Amino acid sequence: MTMAEVRIRLRDNGPLVVTGPVELVDAQGQAFVVEDSFALCRCGQSGKKPFCDGTHRTVEFQDQSRAK
């Protein structure tokens, strides 16, 4: 991965893992403080939305999407 490359990886039954230099902003344009790697919730049950807090494990979230 090069310095300016961003990767978003879909984890089976888990979050979206974002790696690289990105800015994450809310609907009003306010930026969240993020590291160069962070996980975004896909299950909708996280107590730290939009970030993943691992709740997908306890609610048994299931998704194994594949690129076609």
From TrEMBL:
Record InterPro entries: FeS-contain_CDGSH-typ, MitoNEET_CISD
GO cellular component: cytoplasm
Gene Ontology MF annotations: 2 iron, 2 sulfur cluster binding; metal ion binding
UniProt xrefs under Pfam families: zf-CDGSH
Listed transmembrane segments: none
Entry keyword set: 2Fe-2S, Iron, Iron-sulfur, Metal-binding
Limits of the Iron-binding zinc finger CDGSH type domain: 23-62
Gene3D superfamilies, per database record: CDGSH iron-sulfur domain, mitoNEET-type
Name of the protein in question: Iron-binding protein
Origin species: Kyrpidia spormannii
